[in-house]
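Problem 12. The chain below contains 272 residues. Write out its predicted structure in token notation.
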Amino acid sequence: MDDIKERLLASYPADVVRRFFELELLDRSFGLAAQAFVSLLPLLIVVVSVFLGGNEDFLAIQMSDRFGLAGAAAEAVRALFRASTATVTISWLAVVMSALSAFALSRRLSRVYASIYGLPSLARSQLWRGLMWIVVQLVLFAVASQLRSVRRDSGLVIAPIAITVLLAVWFFGDMVGLRLLVPSIPRRLLVPSAVVGGIGRVGLTAWSAIYMPRALSSQAEQYGPIGVTFALFTLILAGVFVYLAGPLLVSVWFRRRDTATPPDGIALAATE
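Solution.
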């Protein structure tokens, strides 16, 4: 019995769980999700308002179509985004403040990634990489939205192609994002992390297609627009877990494989 217990404690899943709590990733995930909610949503509203002429219903329509919402749920989503749009004065000040908030999120995520890999985070001379990361995320959001629309509206022949392209988009998006936020990451960590991240994003898309329609409808009926924010925060939190899953799983795997790697993990990069 003791032998079985020792094997379980020394297993790869146990090491992943142990590392997860050593790095306080649960607390950090909630912090990242909260910051993403208050920074990326206003930034999306500003971008939509600038490029789509203030179409306040655009994001609401996109979300309703994405999750097949109707009735009270669709109206609650529309009310939430209209209220959010009304609080954002589209000016250079709004653009700058939204960008700064998202920039702070990128730096925070860089520090979390760096702690997982045991590598340096962004230096002051590399802060431009955080801004580029924001641009990459906006482009990924737009491309993924279009691919999901193609997959939903297409037949059985086109749908698998759209899913494959979506996986490729997330893979290359993760590679670019990780390279931007952790410039010193070696290729042997970068590629598998991006593969796991891409698969995780596709899985998150499938999970959200099942969970979010029911969650949004239920929360909207009970709490109105505030209930929609609860469901959206759950989705963002799940997305943060997916963002961190690839780096965590891959870094622990190489730690176990490289028996000479010291506990702080700095040597992960040295053995490329």
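Discussion. The CA atoms of residues 128 and 180 lie 9 Å apart. Students who got a different answer should revisit the alignment rule from Section 12.3.
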